[in-house]
Design a protein that fits this description.
The complex is a heterodimer. By secondary structure, chain A is an alpha/beta fold. Chain A has 19 helices and 17 strands. Chain A is globular, with a radius of gyration of 24 Å. Helices cover 28% and strands 18% of the residues of chain B. Classes of the chains: A alpha/beta, B alpha+beta.
Chain lengths: 540, 114
């Protein structure tokens, strides 16, 4: 019996395959009740966690491996699990005993006066969760068959990345959001994804068709749906062949104007199979992944080695790294404020960084050190007032001076701002920034007072409406007057329908998810700037 | 009798002691702790360290305990070792600490110690 479910498209594409439902988050574990089998469960979870780590070390760079070797040393030390084994002997279940023992250990790190020791709590959290995942049986990512349609309530980014997508497949979430981290990863990898299906995961089994262009999931499709799918798939395959070929070529309009194409990256692992030749650099590295993957904050070394890897991937191409943009729809437990009546108008982006100067300084130091290895540009999110930029600049300069004084190589990367708050767009000429990057997603929703995630007003959140085109033209002109670069890094940048209008507004650099580059270059080739109406400047 | 004529007491009872100043910036942090425990484990001797010669003593072969100890830059660590290779163990460990745990890639530009 064919069943249709409608959700929202989080990443376009088509897929046909078997549904593979996976449990969400940490599963629950049924305790055996016998101390000896609980102790055995803990021992085998510890040894499974150790073999995970050994496998990870094999594929890691030297810097990352050193961090993991520390975790191995702790895990190999029987002292770590001693309190847990004592609790098990006294009748505790293995997972509860482990959780409590590690909480105790973590508290010891977190209460240290020394920031180096406090920062190591992140490794303890990582160890705790890795062992816990084996105890609760939720560490089964490898069991997802290649090409499957993964069904879940929501999915953690690390679990998405652990799945083998090399043979296609799709992601269907019964909850979730189109702006979530996992949705961004799906778009960037070209994995079709639908969110907000609003059904029970238990209903999702059997063969299914995913039409993530329309946001439709068809379970047990009938003959008519299959025929339609074959036709859609053929059209899509032709388009994909064209796009793949186009991706490797420069982006040039019909009249011969070269457009610079840069990438949006949410996780450095996205770069592993990517040829840098498809782009002119990276226009946006979202650094939130560093702060989400583990429950502690990343230290300077971790950040530095991650940024350095990205910069080295790009060779000499510019890499724009955005400082932490938490808050709004991207909360980080323990860092972002809770209970704000409207988080989108609250302490987020640079506002949060200025409120948490220690966290910000650590990131600035790591960025200045990574700048030694390539062309790093530091980008500040959610800038509203010119004085915020001035404060951030003086903090960056102070950290570079401190690093230099300590004999640690660092370089003053150029410092620019996101234009995503209307105040910054309207007064763009007042900002002494070294570059602008227009964040069209937030700018659109703040200009239109309409959230993209609210279905009833989503049409109003159109990045190409008259008010937006006028603002874009104004910001482009302000950048030209200051002789600085300006680019656009919202979803509109990779949207074939929006591209002619963005070029008409004067933009010549677009930043987008890697999977969209081919189509965007095709769309650019079809634009003749001699016949595109330039959008009107601000009326005077 | 198994004692050598150069040792006035049986080897398994011989207690060797030494001390070293922590000079590296981060103290007995993650990587130094791993290096210290890895080195200690190469010896059969029982090796402990403390902030004072009166203890409390910490097992130098347990990374978990070494990290719990939280030694920072500028502290003096007192070591004691007992066992047949205690003297070599102690010399190696004191040297490791005095060298600032040797190769710290990002901090090579600092002035040599001592």
């Amino acid at each position: 019996m064919e069943k249709r479910f409608a959700g929202r498209s989080a990443a376009p594409g088509l897929a046909l395959g078997a549904l593979f439902p996976i449990a969400n988050g940490t599963g629950t574990r049924v305790a055996s009740g016998a101390a000896e089998s609980e102790a055995e469960a803990l021992r085998s979870a510890l040894s499974a966690a150790l073999s995970d780590l050994s496998a990870l070390i094999e594929r890691s760079t030297e810097d990352a491996a050193a961090i993991l070797e520390f975790q191995v040393a702790l895990l190999e030390d029987d002292v770590l699990a001693e309190p847990a084994h004592a609790a098990i002997a006294a009748g505790s279940a293995a997972d509860q005993a482990w959780l409590q023992a590690l909480q105790q250990e973590i508290a010891g790190y977190e209460t240290s006066d020394d920031e180096y020791f406090r920062a190591r709590a992140a490794d303890l959290y990582d160890i705790r969760d890795r062992v816990l995942a084996h105890l609760t049986g939720s560490a089964t990512e490898t069991a997802v068959p290649a090409g499957a349609i993964v069904a879940a309530v929501d999915l953690a980014p690390s679990r998405f990345l652990a799945i083998d997508w090399s043979r296609g497949g799709a992601l269907v979430l019964t909850a979730g959001s189109t702006t979530s981290h996992v949705a961004m990863l799906a778009r960037s990898r070209g994995i079709p994804a639908i969110v907000g299906l609003g059904v029970d995961v238990d209903e999702l089994s059997g063969l299914a068709l995913v039409d993530a262009h329309r946001g439709v999931l068809i379970v047990n499709p009938g003959p008519a749906a299959r025929v339609q799918f074959e036709r859609d798939a053929e059209t899509a395959a032709t388009a994909r062949t064209l796009a793949t070929a186009a991706a490797m070529k420069p982006a040039v309009t019909a009249d011969g104007t070269t457009i610079r194409i840069v990438l949006n990256i949410a996780d450095p692992r996205e770069l592993s199979d990517l040829d840098p030749a498809i782009c002119d650099g990276i226009g946006l590295v979202r650094t939130e992944f560093l702060f989400h993957n583990q429950q502690g904050l990343p230290d300077e070394e971790q950040q530095y080695s991650t940024y350095r890897r990205i910069v080295e991937w790009a060779h000499d191409r510019p890499v724009t790294i955005r400082t932490l943009d938490a808050g709004g729809d991207k909360p980080i437990p323990g860092l972002t404020p809770t209970g704000e009546s409207n988080p989108f108008l609250g302490v987020r982006g640079l506002r949060l960084s200025l409120a948490q100067p220690d966290v910000f300084r650590t990131q600035l130091r790591a960025l200045a050190r990574a700048a030694m290895h390539g062309n790093v540009k530091i980008m500040l999110p959610m800038v509203t007032h010119p004085r915020e930029l001035a404060i951030a600049r003086s903090m960056l300069d102070a950290e570079i001076a401190a690093l230099t004084a300590a004999g640690i190589p660092a370089r003053r990367a150029s410092l620019g701002i996101m234009i995503e708050v209307p105040a910054a767009a309207i007064a763009a000429d007042q900002f002494d920034a070294e570059f602008f990057s227009i964040g069209s997603n937030d700018l659109t929703q703040y200009v239109a007072a309409a959230g993209r995630d609210i279905g009833a007003v989503a049409d109003l959140a159109d990045p190409t409406q008259p008010a937006m085109l006028r603002l874009l033209r104004y910001v482009v002109n302000a950048a030209r007057a200051q002789h600085i670069d300006v680019s656009l890094c919202g979803d509109a940048g990779g949207d074939a329908r929006a591209i002619p209008l963005l070029l008409g507004a004067g933009l010549r650099t677009l930043s987008m998810a890697p999977a969209l580059v081919g189509n965007a270059k095709l769309a650019i080739a079809a634009v003749d700037l001699r016949s595109v109406m330039e959008s009107e400047p601000w009326p005077t | 009798m198994t004692t050598s004529r150069y040792d006035p007491v049986p080897k398994h009872n011989a207690m060797h002691t030494g001390s070293a100043l922590l000079t590296n910036d981060v103290g007995l942090h993650a990587r130094p702790s791993v290096k210290l425990t890895q080195l200690a484990k190469r010896f059969g001797a029982h090796i402990e360290f403390a902030r004072a010669t009166t203890g409390p003593w910490v097992d130098a072969k347990s990374p978990v305990k070494v990290m719990r100890f939280k030694a920072t830059k500028g502290e003096t660590l007192h070591f004691r070792a007992r066992g047949s290779d205690a003297a070599e163990a102690l010399a190696a460990i004191v040297s490791l600490v005095e060298r600032g745990f040797a190769t710290e890639p990002e901090r090579t530009s600092q002035l040599p110690q001592g």
